[in-house]
Amino acid sequence: MKAIGLTRYLPIDDPKSLEDIELPTPTPAGRDLLVKVEAISVNPVDTKVRAPKDKVEATPRVLGWDAAGTVAAVGPDVTLFKVGDPVYYAGSITRPGANSEFHLVDERIVGHMPASLDYVNAAALPLTTITAWEALFDRLGIAPDGSDEGKSILIVGGAGGVGSIAIQLARRLARLNIVASASRPESADWCRQLGAQHVIDHYQDIPAQLQAVGLPQVDFVLCLNDTDAHFPAMAAAVAPQGKICSIVENLGPLDIGLLKSKSATFVWEFMFTRAMYETPDMIAQHKLLTEVARLVDAGTLRTTLGEFIGPINAVNLRRAHAQLEGGRTIGKLVLAGF
After folding, report:
1. Which residues contact 90 (CB under 8 A, 6 or more apart)?
2. pLDDT reported for residue 327
């Protein structure tokens, strides 16, 4: 089968950083699905895993943790899907990625694809949707049924992949008052289109801007951009007994003491946790993605596709990685067809 892989971790402008390769088609066992991949999207995790370092792989490593396709074969223990089912999923960081014609994935982290979307639009959703859903509803404890209506949230980095779906979930399901941050006019407009009532610039004084929009403190903060740089501002912005969740790893120590007098909570979200540790509730991601498909088909949520890059090959994938590393992407970048 065709795939895109690497053996060395090189700068993305090096043609050998990602190469077109041929690999054997895998065979499903246990609860695995063999998926014929139709479309993929690219996330910051791809660029972080591929980042230059002194390491050489004995066999090519395949990246990619967002895919939409069709079930081509099933393992003997599969109960949730059948051959021919359209599916979408993010997969597991501990297994080969989906940048290949066929891909093995555990059925417990796979969802039935939205019937109203094609593969390109569906591939934009899984990883970021799981991340946003878990961050809002599992980690921050926000009620998805609207019981927290009227409470406020600051989403730092609202125009990226996770922010694009988090704004929709926070507005249309939780019915929160949303302040999103964006640093350019086009990304600010994107956030407003998705449902943010207020947009501020995360490169400027965040507490002062919150004061200006009439929300000097917010009940929840979701950090999707530079935890180290924004932590003092988030600690100042969060309300007493409020909660902060980040998906961006810190490079230095965080001053958690800033939260003590407020009895505020800080929590991480990492969407690969359930698959990585095979937690007892691993199937929650199957249920989550299936529910999101229902919400998309009902018109409650929309795809977060930002740009279609073209066919799935090394040249286009390197281009997508380079765009992400440039830090100016709005929504998701998607490739389709080998």
Report:
1. 65, 66, 67, 109, 126, 127, 130, 271, 272, 285
2. 87
